[in-house]
Every structure is written in structure tokens, then in C-alpha cells.
Task: structure prediction
Amino acid sequence: MLNKQIKPIEDMNKTVSSMAQERIRAAILDGILPPGARIDQNQLAKDLNTSLVPVREALKKLEGEGFVQIIPRRGAFVTHTSIKDMEDLYFARSILEGQAGYHAAERISEDKLKQLDALHTKVGFSLESHDFDEFSKLNRQFHFIIYEAAGSTYLSGMIASLWDLADRYRYRYVFFKDQAAVIQAEHKQILDACHAHDPKALREAIIYHMNQTLNGIRSFGEQNSNKQE
Result:
């Protein structure tokens, strides 16, 4: 199936399952494993020079990221994605998250602002070190400190549901070239608006950040389509 297109696992500084996760994710992002493709786990283990156990662990983690769908008694498949679905999802998110930011701006406490400052620094380190699992966790914490400051359990719950759905697209943006500087600059705009307690500025910064992510994912999709033609 994959032959020599995926590098075998050799770096023992990481767990085998973590390395397998990185290799499979890269194969999906590079179009080696296209959307909808059934993943031959035995062949994958052979290509990666490992056993089935870490491959299965890696696929389970990739399912959580939105890259893979595991169907009982049928196997693992690369998740289908579409520009239309992505745009619809980000349209809904921009409305909810923008409004959450607007209502959070004047309510966010000094303690929460200190937490945001610390998280902003940690997010930068995770991006620079290409630790994308850590980035995903810290990035979520950063944004949800703001959204929860709006004081609406229902709003936070709806945002969380859409956020989970967006993971499969968001990872594509983070992995598309090196977005560390861009992401951190946009986060800084959000952070500055929080410190200023400026509702309009915070709403605009959040929506701008989301639109830039959407544009980046769209660019990745277009380039990936060109690769497959």
C-alpha cells in the first residue's frame, strides 16, 4: 500500500505509538492516504517497521484528532472532509465565538488574564518544538478561558461541540508549512484586546483569527488537490 513513502520508525526518544501517529498523520496530510481510503493496518505496520499494537494505538489517537474514522468490524478509514463543510462549520463558530469574546471582554478577571499571558508563552514553545499534541491542549485552554468568561454555560457548550468538529481541519492548518509566528501574532491581538477589556476589538480579533485559519486550511486543500491530479 504505502511501500517506501512512509519512513520506518527509528527515533527511540519517543514512544513507538507516538512516532506511528506522526507518520500516519503526515501520510494523510501529504495525500499518500487520501480521504475515504481504508487503512491496511498490517501493511502499515510493515511499512513502519513495527507491530500492530502501536499502529492501533496511533489510529485511535488520530480518530480523536479527526483524521481517522474507526468503524467496528470494518476497519479504519481516512476521514472525508470538504471545503463546504469546513466553511459552514467556521461560519457557525465565528458567530458563537465572536459573540462569546464580545461578552467576555469586560468580565474577564485579572487572574484569568495572567493565565492567558502564561498560556500564550507556552503555546509559542509548543509550536516552536512542533509538539502539536501539547499545542492542541494549550490552544484550547487559551481560547476557552475567554469564552467561559462570558458566563454562559450553554454558549460554552455549543462552542465546545463545534470546536471538537473543527479539530480535523485545524490540524491541517497547523501542519501546513510553519504557522507558529502567524498563530502567535493573532493570539497576541486577542490577548491585547482582553487586557484592554475592549468588546469590539476582542470580537474582531477572534473572528480574524478564525478567518485566517479557514483561509490557511483552504489553501492546503487546494494544494493537496493539485498534488493528487
